[in-house]
Amino acid sequence: MNVRKFFILFFLLGIGCSVAAQTKNKSFINYIDRYNTLAVEQMGKYKIPASITLAQALLESGGGLSELARSSNNHFGIKCHADWTGERIYRRDDTPNDCFRVYPTVEDSYEDHSKFLTRSRYAVLFTYDIKDYESWARGLQECGYATDKAYANKLIKYVEDYELYVYDYKSLSKGKNSSGNQQRRTRPTYLTHGLLYVVADANDSFDQIAYDMKFKVKNLLKYNDVPQADFPLKKGDIVYLEKKKKKADKPYFTYVVKVGDSMHRISQRYGIQLKNLYKMNKKKSDYVPVEGDVLKLR
């Protein structure tokens, strides 16, 4: 490759990186920076994942910029209901004149949101692991927190796009084991879609799997389309040990989206590179899969 072609390629790659970086909403990033400590405090008191609290706040308040958030400090879109005795405001939502709660401060909104989820209606949520944001998101939709059919999938996308899952570990033991005190263990390997993989254990991590399999962590993250080693793993998750395919094997031609799905989760299920899954379906990076959507796999 001559020098001119090299610099053209370097320039184009630079543009690609810039475009990818711009997909994150600046106001959302500012909101997360401002309120993540509050979400973690609520997690410590009520055992609600900080990632879910932040994702709901981003979605319901538009990153704190919605009229309801600015005028009433209501960051979760909580309506009055029969037991509300505080100040109220009326806005169009499901009906032309819905009643919403008004809070003296944002902190009061977060506190009331946590208490709201301790109602018996949401009791099933607290049977899920505090680090299992997917089950919490799916459970909120199934328990009727919102009528939006894509509500759970939107929450999951926010958690993954803005790496909110890191806040779910804030109240847990801090610090990671270094290779000096890690115990290397033998892991069985399996084959699916013609790809080699291992299965995550409970409380597993990409760091540990890379160490056990004598892989570089950065390669393992690349193979599995995750941005950093803190990306959470659940027991039973597939972790690929080689690059995923550009399309699914036959006979997997299409997939019908379910509640709690994300593009990343679908790409892992069928061993498809995440960027290719978006490309095949002509979707941009801000696309949220909606229950019932039919996605191409090849």
The CATH level-2 architecture of the largest domain is identified as Orthogonal Bundle
Number of domains: 3
- What CATH calls the topology of the largest domain is Lysozyme
Question: What helical percentage do the residues reach?
Answer: 40-55%
Class from secondary-structure proportions: mainly alpha
- How many helical stretches? 11
One letter per element, helices H and strands E, the order comes to HHHHEEHHHEEHHEEHHE
Task: Tell me the β content.
Answer: 5-15%
Low-confidence stretches: 3-22, 173-179
Global shape = globular
The total strand number stands at 7
CATH C-level label of the largest domain: Mainly Alpha
Radius of gyration: 21 Å
Going across the major beta sheet, what is the strand order?
Answer: 3-4-5
Taking the sheet with the most strands, its summary is: 3 strands, antiparallel
How would you describe the overall organization of this protein?
The protein folds into 3 domains: 144 residues, Lysozyme; 51 residues, Membrane-bound Lytic Murein Transglycosylase D, Chain A, CATH 3.10.350; 43 residues, Membrane-bound Lytic Murein Transglycosylase D, Chain A, CATH 3.10.350.10. Strand 3 and strand 4 form a beta hairpin. It is mainly alpha-helical. 41% of the residues lie in helices and 8% in strands.
